[in-house]
Amino acid sequence: METVDVIIPVYKPDRGFLTLVEKLETQSHPVNQIIIMNTEQKYFDRLFYGTVLERTYHNITVKHLSKREFDHGHTRNQGVRLSKADVFLMMTQDAMPADEYLVERLLAGLRDEGTAAAYARQLPGEKSGEIERYTRRFNYPEESFIKTKADLPELGIKTFFCSNVCAAYKREIFDALGGFVNRAIFNEDMLYAAKAVNADYGIAYVAGACVYHSHNYNYRQQFHRNFDLGVSQADHPEVFAAYPSESEGLRLLKGTVAHLKKKGMRNKIPGVILQCAFKYAGYLCGKKYRRLPKRLVLSMSSNKEYWRQGCL
User: Fold this and answer.
1) Which residue among 145, 174, 236, 245 is least packed, with the fewest CB closer than 10 Å?
2) Helix (H) or strand (E) holding 195
3) How confident is the model over 170-224, as pLDDT tens digits?
4) Alpha-carbon separation of residue 61 from 32, 129, 215 (angstroms)
5) Strands 202-212 and 60-65
């Protein structure tokens, strides 16, 4: 049986994090080890998670780091180095397995010898609005598929889409390709997927492996998030220059507007357009960040520590 470890970067966990651990501990395919990469120990200890986890489970490893040390790529690479499993599963602390078959189904998605990674379907949470629900269906459809280099002419940037909210990786291939980039403000998962695709491996989307994960960002939060997205694309033209993402954003906008009309929710359309304007503005500013004053860049980004680590 293949061994599977789960690696979760954590920051200021709430009570729901224990539920996530419990669901991982009761998977049909057993999890060998849960590796928690926790930022700032004081927040972790404040809720006594360390004591509870150590007393309840015997397969949990907690690695503490400072906020200044955290990086989307490097921190995950550190977690991988703590794992000896055949396959490791990257998750975020706000993703919740929909059932006990998450690990089993992701492993099934990796069965093909040429598949390097498999990512899960993200379902909207109970509090999600109609727009967020449509966005989840747009990005995470009901049908599974495997993306390869042959799909680039048709899918473009979507060929590289993979989400570390919940994604499984073959360790042997991961090591051979050099892992995640060590400095990443965002998109470490897509950057790895692009590397895998260009090395003639496939990226599997497994619709039957589901987690609940969604956000209800306000306009300001959308701007900050998309600013970081733009920065990541500006920093990696070798991946994104040939496959711009603007057309995909426009396709989502058109689809959302059509969906709201069909649902009789035309009153929500102005909000969608305004939301997309904030997204696009953030994205454009991020792509041009080198032309902006340092102070302005810091105010626009949602990842302040990235810039304080000398990235400006």
Assistant:
1) 145
2) helix 188-198
3) 999 999 999 999 999 999 999 999 999 999 999 999 999 999 998 889 999 999 9
4) 11, 36, 28
5) unpaired
